[in-house]
Amino acid sequence: MNYLYISFFLPPLGGAEPRHNLSVIRRLYARGYTPLAVTAPLDFDHPRDPALEALLPEGTRLRRVRWGGKKYGGRVREICGVPANPLGFGRWRRLYRAARDEIRTGSPAFIYSVHGIGAAHLAALRLKRDTGLPWVAEFRDPWSQNAIAWRYMRDKSWRWWYRACLARTRSLTARVAKEADLIVVESPMHGDALVADFGAQRNKVVSHGMGFEPDYFTDRAVDVVDLPRRPVIGYLGYVYYGHEQVVGNFVAALRKLEQRGVRFTLLTAGDGSGLFSRCAIEAGLESHVPLARLPLTTALSLMRQLDFGLVCRIPEDRCNINSKLWEYLQAGVSLLALVPPDGAMAALIEEGACGYMLPYDADAMAGAISHALEDFRAGTTQRASPEFVARYSSERIVDALASKIREIVGPR
Questions:
Q1: In sequence order, what are the residues at sequence separation of 6 or more whose Cβ sits closer than 8 angstroms to the Cβ of residue 295?
Q2: Do 283 and 166 reside in the same domain of the chain?
Q3: Dihedral of the CA atoms 42, 44, 46, 50 (nearest 10)?
Q4: Which residues make Cβ contacts (< 8 Å) with residue 76, sequence separation at least 6?
Q5: Domain residues for 69?
């Protein structure tokens, strides 16, 4: 059975969303669903991971859409106080036209769109109205509840522009909530918000965490860096906008422990923002080992050498679940969670006893980290059980998703 898959981020582009999209495509393909994928052009300026491209199923048909754009336009708009909405609604018609052609030639049974940029859902919304095909809309990140995006817009925009963009986003969210036949969200909290705030029908909203893909992990050991002091606390990945105070307080807490003679290593990799390095220099932290961006297989293998994995979100970011959380769990790493205590990540971490919740205040945080390090030295580190982790494998998640798709599409 053919289906139309609209997502801007597919291999060879790298990062969390291409990994997730690849996993969904592979798992659905194994269940008899063949994708007609509409995605980004090969020359799109984005980090790459060519190893992922080799894992695409042989039957995948890729339609790459010309994107273009002015090189300095985004910076000029930011200076003028009218930045583009970071949720990426622009140029949706380009995706729509390419997807419409694929529908004419490939006869897909349903539409599956994924938010990496909002244009994917807007193209699918138009196609749904044109064709009446069943539509699965997957939100990997919230729209109206996206605290990081709206903090950026508030900081960089004129007030009238911020309000106009938020109002349009809320209107578009309501349209997707009404028209989609199945809405996939990362957390139950995000699903509740779509039902309460935008009138989505409860029975068509399903929560499926991104989970982890076992096939991406290997048993190959990596030797990319000396780790001089254990335990090793790791943060592997990019730090998003607005986390300056969160990361600064975390580094300050580690510096307090370092000054007391507590031994550890903070390992960071792939932080293109340079925030950890800047904070470490300002605080005088001596135990920081920074690495550049690593290929996926290397990064996942390195995760297994960590003792603790840091996940962090700004206090307002309650609905989202960090993609690194799933990979840390698969790697058997205990979590240091600097996340909202009433948010979706905290609920999952506490349910699975996955590690240690950290307060946002640097002094209190130092005490909580000290407790975790004492547990490590005593051999009593908190970490999720294998049974709990297994619930979030991509195979189980896509099995549940395929069952829901059959309900709206019918048997193959």
A1: 49, 51
A2: no
A3: 0
A4: none
A5: 2-211+393-409
Of 127, 113, 92, 126, the closest CA to residue 183 belongs to 113
Residue 223 above 70 pLDDT? Answer: no
Task: Please tell me whether residues 158 and 111 are part of one structural domain.
Answer: yes
Among 199, 92, 181, 188, CA closest to 142: 188
**3-state class percentages of the chain: helix first, strand second, coil last, to nearest 5:** 45, 15, 40
Give me the CATH number covering residue 243: 3.40.50.2000
Q: Read off the DSSP letter of residue 103.
A: H
Q: pLDDT digit string (tens) for 279-317?
A: 999 999 999 999 887 877 788 888 888 999 999 999 999
Q: Are the C-beta atoms of residues 307 and 265 closer than 8 Å to each other?
A: no
Alpha carbons 63 and 49: distance in angstroms, whole number: 19
Our count of domains for the chain comes to 2
Q: Which two tokens stand for residue 69?
A: 């754009």
